[in-house]
Every structure is written in structure tokens, then in C-alpha cells.
Design brief:
Elements: H1 3-19, E1 23-28, H2 29-35, E2 49-57, E3 61-66, H3 70-75, H4 79-82, E4 85-89, H5 96-102, E5 107-109, E6 117-118, H6 120-128, H7 132-155, H8 162-175, E7 179-187, H9 189-193, E8 207-216, E9 219-229, H10 234-253, H11 260-273, E10 286-289, E11 296-297, E12 311-314, E13 317-318, E14 321-322, E15 325-329, E16 334-336, E17 345-350, E18 355-360, E19 363-365
Parallel strand pairs: 1-5, 3-4, 5-6, 9-19
Antiparallel strand pairs: 1-2, 2-3, 7-8, 8-9, 10-11, 10-12, 12-15, 13-14, 15-16, 17-18
């Protein structure tokens, strides 16, 4: 067994001990990928619970699936070799083996399942604590997402529909082996009107927002960028600059030992200081990222505390502007994983942290 899997096996057992349970059931796609060090249990990419489940007891690790998925999970993903004991049902009765395995057990689970105790919130916190191996994979994913964003943003042209821009972004991601699980596009006035702009047939005139959350090895990474054709109007630039100030504040203070409530409050203070005190109310500010687009959010009153090895994607927005990168929290500093070389940035000094944060500006194309 590899080191990463042994670390996770230890976490499984600690969770069982904490709840006095006999077995841990993992059915979420995100949990399956986390527990298996990156294997996919889904067929439908939009599904929450995959076509394979994991059951962990104190001395054995089972994988329950159907006869369609079993060959791929064994031969391509190497999960039998990793230590998972396969229990295979026919596709006509896909839950047979899982029901047999769980019958009569005192269970904890990451989803509602019979009489099992739902510990999904705790598991999301475990998933967010990335191992060094996961951090290495996330760095690679960040580079791939940044490359996909850069290539597609520079290929955008006026009169393209939002659907066409989304196709560019999704295609650049897929070419790099990254699944675009979030692909949002807004152009012109839609950037002001909607915080989650699903693409439409509207044609681009001058201003575009591209948003990507990409998945590979089960891990996910988020990045947003703005593109403007011709000189950027002063009001638009003011909104982008203000968003950058909030973004820099959030990133700089996401340091080990800091509560997410503290980070959130500092973000609110910066919204007010830049002249946009109420904009935070219209969209969440982001939070921890790992095997879900947000494992948990930064919220007022949050008791969650930042730790080394966690990744965060903050996404401050002001009507007409958005900023989003994925960072990895290190012992000495934070690493921006989705930085794009040669993209225009503004460097903001956060004096109280003695740190300089580079925030992406709109790419101006003349």
C-alpha cells in the first residue's frame, strides 16, 4: 500500500473510533476519489453518488459495484491491488452486494443510507486536508486549468455566442485531460446581472467573464478571468480594482491557525473600504476546495480553522467583476496554483501580513 492510502486508512479508523461505529460507508463521487487516491466512480459526470461504493471496517476494505464498472476499476484503476476487496452485483440488481455487506452493521456514512449516521460534514473536512501527494497533483491540475483558461480567453472574439466561448473553454480543458465541471460564461451586461451565469446564445460585444472549475484525479480547481475588447471604462476598472483588493485580503489572511470567520470579516471590511459594502451579500465568497468545488464555505461565525495542506478558492464579486484563483496553504506562504504567466496583474501589498499578492486584471485586447 502506498503512503497516501495508509494516511487515509488511518483517518478512516479514527473516524470509526470517534463514533463507535463498525463500518464507514462512502458513496459520494468525491469521497470515492479521495479514499482511492484519485479513482473515478461516476459514469454520469453530474451525479453525486457514483456507481461504486466503499465500505471500510476496522480490518477490511470493500468495494461494491456492478459488473459493468468492476473491470475498469480493477484493471485501469488498480483498486484490487490497492487493497480493496471487490464485491460485484449484476447490473440488474446493482445494490445486492452492498446491502449484504451493510446488513446489521452500525454504520457511519457520507450520504443518507438506511439507519447510518450521516457524517458528511466531518468527511468534507477530512477531504480538505490534502496529503503532500494530493498537493502535488493539485499543483499540476492548477497549471492545466490555467493553461486552458489562457488559451480560451485569448481565442475569444466579439460576436461569439456565450455557448461558443463555453465550448472553447471546455474544449481546452478536455484536451488537457481536465473535466470542466463548472463552465460559466457571461458577456457585457450579464456580468452585472448574474453571479452564476450559465452560458446563453447571447453574442459578445466587448466584455466577457469566463469561469472554470476543472476536475482530474477527483481533485477540483477553480479559476475565473475577465476579457475586454478595447479600452476598459473607468467604472469597470474601478470595480475590478476593488474586487482585487478584497481578493488579496482573503488570500493573504488564509494562513494556518486563522479562523474562516476572521478571514470572512476581513473580506467584508475590504468591501466597505473600497466603496462596495453590500456586494458580498449577492454571492458566497468561496472557501476550502479539494474533491468538491467547495468542501466548506467561509461564512460569518465559521469555526473552521485554516491549516497547512488545505486548498482554498476565494471568489469575491462586485457587479461587473469577479476574481478567482485556487491557492494551496503552505507552512511559510500561500501558493497561487492557477496563476497565468504573462496575464496582466496588479500587485497588492497587505502590510499587516507583510505579503504581496498578485491579482489578475482584465485581459485588454485592442
Amino acid at each position: 500500500m502506498n503512503t497516501e492510502f495508509l494516511i487515509k486508512r488511518k483517518k478512516f479508523l479514527e473516524l470509526l473510533d470517534k463514533h463507535g461505529a463498525q463500518a464507514l460507508l462512502l458513496r459520494r463521487v468525491s469521497s470515492f476519489a479521495w479514499a482511492t487516491c484519485g479513482a473515478p466512480s461516476y459514469v454520469n459526470t453530474a451525479i453525486t453518488e457514483g456507481a461504486a461504493s466503499l465500505l471500510v471496517t476496522r480490518d477490511r476494505c470493500f468495494l461494491a459495484t456492478n459488473n459493468i464498472e468492476a473491470p475498469r476499476l480493477e484493471q485501469e484503476c488498480g483498486l484490487a491491488e490497492q487493497g480493496w476487496e471487490f464485491r460485484i452485483s449484476h447490473w440488474t440488481s446493482p445494490m445486492d452486494e452492498l446491502n449484504k455487506l451493510t446488513a446489521g452493521l452500525n454504520l457511519i456514512s457520507d450520504v443518507p443510507f438506511g439507519s447510518a449516521k450521516d457524517v458528511s460534514a466531518e468527511i468534507s473536512r477530512l477531504r480538505a486536508g490534502l496529503t503532500p501527494a494530493e498537493g502535488k497533483r493539485l499543483r499540476q491540475l492548477g497549471r492545466l486549468c490555467a493553461q486552458a483558461m489562457d488559451a480560451s480567453a485569448r481565442a475569444v472574439r466579439p460576436q461569439m455566442t456565450e455557448y461558443e466561448i463555453a465550448a472553447l473553454l471546455g474544449g481546452e480543458a478536455q484536451q488537457r485531460g481536465v473535466q470542466p465541471i463548472v463552465n460559466l460564461i457571461a458577456t457585457d451586461e450579464r456580468i452585472y446581472r448574474f453571479r452564476h451565469p450559465l452560458p446563453t446564445e447571447k453574442k459578445l460585444e466587448k466584455y466577457a467573464l469566463l469561469v472554470l472549475t476543472g476536475r482530474r484525479w477527483g481533485l477540483v480547481c477553480s479559476i475565473s478571468r475577465l476579457v475586454h475588447f478595447g479600452p476598459i471604462p473607468a467604472d469597470v476598472q474601478k470595480r475590478i480594482d476593488a474586487t482585487a483588493r478584497v481578493n488579496a485580503m482573503l488570500i493573504a489572511h488564509t494562513r494556518p491557525g486563522r479562523s474562516l470567520d476572521d478571514v470572512f470579516q476581513l473580506g467584508l471590511h475590504e468591501y466597505a473600504a473600497t466603496g462596495f459594502p453590500d456586494e458580498w451579500r449577492f454571492h458566497h465568497q468561496g472557501g476550502a476546495i479539494g474533491y468538491e468545488p467547495r468542501e466548506f464555505l467561509g461564512l460569518p461565525g465559521s469555526a473552521d480553522v485554516v491549516s497547512v495542506g488545505q486548498a482554498y478558492a476565494w471568489n469575491p464579486t462586485i457587479a461587473g467583476a469577479k476574481m478567482e484563483d485556487t491557492i494551496l496553504v503552505g507552512e511559510k506562504s500561500n501558493e497561487i496554483l492557477t496563476a497565468i504567466p504573462h496575464w496582466p496583474v496588479i500587485s497588492i501589498i497587505i502590510a499587516e501580513q507583510d505579503v504581496e499578492i498578485s491579482c489578475p486584471m482584465a485581459l485588454e485586447i485592442n
